[in-house]
């Protein structure tokens, strides 16, 4: 009698390679983990590398709640050229000599894009406009506008400014930057807007995501490494790292998993999703406080 393969419930932290879409990585993981139940928390553009959080089996129910967290990136912004996609994947649409842009001007431009800002996503983003992906509308040659959205850029730092010459001979500046921002922030839109503010245009030439919420690059594995050894962060450990923790006794655990709205301790008011643990460290549910009661978001126990 053959033993049935079982994939553990949990998160897989992938170091995404360049050239892969997030969906490509999910498809690859379905083969590695031998299950259809794989999803991702927040896409990464094909050009970008770094942390992509995947959920396997029951942990797919965590993903929508994980996507609300802070993210951290390292990237390179080229000042002096605009592209169709606001990154190096798209055709160059304009070139302007950027050699006279000073470090002071760069720092002032970065300061304007730090904090709570309104951002217009790139037209080739995956945002839906009236139910149709923006990139599809752009590919079909449609004229349309994407409304600006509020995002938070809690840190935007320039580590290095390098003079360079683009392939078309334009003097450009390459900025090595790091960004800490809210989910939904487009780094290529920051590059575009920084270049626009400086009057020379700009686009993103490299991007590496180094953190998604509490999940960092040091815990990420490449697809090749995962093919050799599937490393799954157990669902209880993943939940404990990402959400406030509420420990309950066995009786309340049973009531919660059966949909009973129990009174919630005041300390969790306004804290969003809370991970509920039964005795023995068993992760049983994600809840949120609603009028003093525990409103169930997803049940695992």
Automatic annotation (TrEMBL):
<comment type="function">
    <text>Responsible for synthesis of pseudouridine from uracil-55 in the psi GC loop of transfer RNAs.</text>
</comment>
<dbReference type="InterPro" id="IPR015225">
    <property type="entry name" value="tRNA_psdUridine_synth_fam2_C"/>
</dbReference>
<dbReference type="GO" id="GO:1990481">
    <property type="term" value="P:mRNA pseudouridine synthesis"/>
</dbReference>
<dbReference type="InterPro" id="IPR032819">
    <property type="entry name" value="TruB_C"/>
</dbReference>
<comment type="similarity">
    <text>Belongs to the pseudouridine synthase TruB family. Type 1 subfamily.</text>
</comment>
<dbReference type="GO" id="GO:0031119">
    <property type="term" value="P:tRNA pseudouridine synthesis"/>
</dbReference>
<dbReference type="Pfam" id="PF01509">
    <property type="entry name" value="TruB_N"/>
</dbReference>
<dbReference type="Pfam" id="PF09142">
    <property type="entry name" value="TruB_C"/>
</dbReference>
<dbReference type="InterPro" id="IPR036974">
    <property type="entry name" value="PUA_sf"/>
</dbReference>
<dbReference type="InterPro" id="IPR002501">
    <property type="entry name" value="PsdUridine_synth_N"/>
</dbReference>
<protein>
    <recommendedName>
        <fullName>tRNA pseudouridine synthase B</fullName>
        <ecNumber>5.4.99.25</ecNumber>
    </recommendedName>
</protein>
<dbReference type="Pfam" id="PF16198">
    <property type="entry name" value="TruB_C_2"/>
</dbReference>
<dbReference type="InterPro" id="IPR014780">
    <property type="entry name" value="tRNA_psdUridine_synth_TruB"/>
</dbReference>
<dbReference type="GO" id="GO:0003723">
    <property type="term" value="F:RNA binding"/>
</dbReference>
<dbReference type="InterPro" id="IPR020103">
    <property type="entry name" value="PsdUridine_synth_cat_dom_sf"/>
</dbReference>
<feature type="domain" description="tRNA pseudouridine synthase II TruB subfamily 2 C-terminal">
    <location>
        <begin position="243"/>
        <end position="300"/>
    </location>
</feature>
<feature type="active site" description="Nucleophile">
    <location>
        <position position="45"/>
    </location>
</feature>
<feature type="domain" description="tRNA pseudouridylate synthase B C-terminal">
    <location>
        <begin position="188"/>
        <end position="230"/>
    </location>
</feature>
<keyword id="KW-0413">Isomerase</keyword>
<keyword id="KW-0819">tRNA processing</keyword>
<dbReference type="GO" id="GO:0160148">
    <property type="term" value="F:tRNA pseudouridine(55) synthase activity"/>
</dbReference>
<dbReference type="InterPro" id="IPR015947">
    <property type="entry name" value="PUA-like_sf"/>
</dbReference>
<feature type="domain" description="Pseudouridine synthase II N-terminal">
    <location>
        <begin position="31"/>
        <end position="187"/>
    </location>
</feature>
């Amino acid at each position: 009698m053959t033993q049935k393969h079982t994939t553990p419930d949990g998160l897989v932290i992938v170091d995404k390679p360049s050239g892969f879409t997030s969906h490509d990585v999910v498809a690859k993981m379905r083969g590695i983990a031998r299950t259809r139940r794989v999803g991702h928390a927040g896409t990464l553009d094909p050009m970008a590398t770094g942390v992509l959080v995947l959920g396997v089996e029951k942990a797919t129910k965590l993903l929508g709640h994980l996507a609300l967290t802070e993210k951290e990136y390292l990237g390179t912004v080229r000042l002096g050229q605009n592209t169709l996609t606001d990154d190096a994947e798209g055709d160059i649409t304009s070139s302007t000599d950027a050699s006279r842009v000073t470090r002071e001007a760069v720092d002032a431009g970065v300061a304007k894009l730090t904090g709570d800002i309104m951002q217009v996503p790139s037209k080739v983003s995956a945002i839906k406009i009236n139910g149709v992906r923006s990139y599809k509308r752009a590919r079909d040659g449609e004229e349309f506008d994407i409304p600006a959205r509020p995002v938070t850029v809690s840190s935007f730092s320039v580590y290095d400014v390098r003079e360079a010459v683009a392939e078309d001979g334009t003097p450009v500046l390459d900025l090595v930057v790091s960004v800490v921002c809210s989910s939904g922030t487009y780094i290529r839109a920051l590059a575009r807007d920084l270049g626009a503010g400086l009057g020379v245009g700009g686009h993103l030439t490299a991007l590496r995501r180094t953190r998604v919420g509490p999940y960092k690059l040091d815990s990420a594995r490449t697809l090749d490494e995962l093919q050799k050894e599937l490393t799954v962060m157990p669902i209880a450990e993943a939940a404990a790292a990402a959400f406030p923790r509420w420990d309950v006794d066995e009786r309340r655990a049973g009531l919660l998993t059966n949909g009973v709205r129990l009174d919630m301790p005041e300390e969790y008011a306004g804290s969003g999703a809370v991970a509920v643990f039964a005795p023995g460290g068993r992760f049983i549910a994600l809840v949120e406080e609603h009028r003093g009661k525990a409103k169930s978001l997803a049940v695992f126990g």
